[in-house]
Amino acid sequence: MKARYIILFITIAVPFTLAAQTPDLPREVKIQFMENYISASNVEWQKDRQDHYQARFTHQSQNKLSAYTDQGSWLYTETSMVLCQVPAILRETLLYNYNDADILDIKKIETNNITTFRFTIRNQGEAEYSLTGQLLNLHPATN
Question: How far apart are CA 65 and CA 80, in angstroms?
């Protein structure tokens, strides 16, 4: 009997909890996301400071974050990576510029017209590189 109450509680409470954590998604955003990532799992939605809709999710065993306007236009996707997944030219550039540095985080950032890689390096900040290994942005660490 106790198990029935637990099951009943879960079936009622879980949908309300999920609804409370998910912003009201415009239909266009849902459609575009499903077109881009039909097999996505563990999807969590939030709105950023610019009122863009962001989805954190897993797709093809990779953790991703994708952003959309409220009209459903795709803005960018960030994919978490490990060093061995980075193109060889970028690995060589990193080894040359940050020989013994501790790389804390790697993100591949895709937009409509460019793909870049952002590296977070302990005590040095963030460096953003093009696919060809050109330094695009450098954000020094603030202590």
Answer: 9
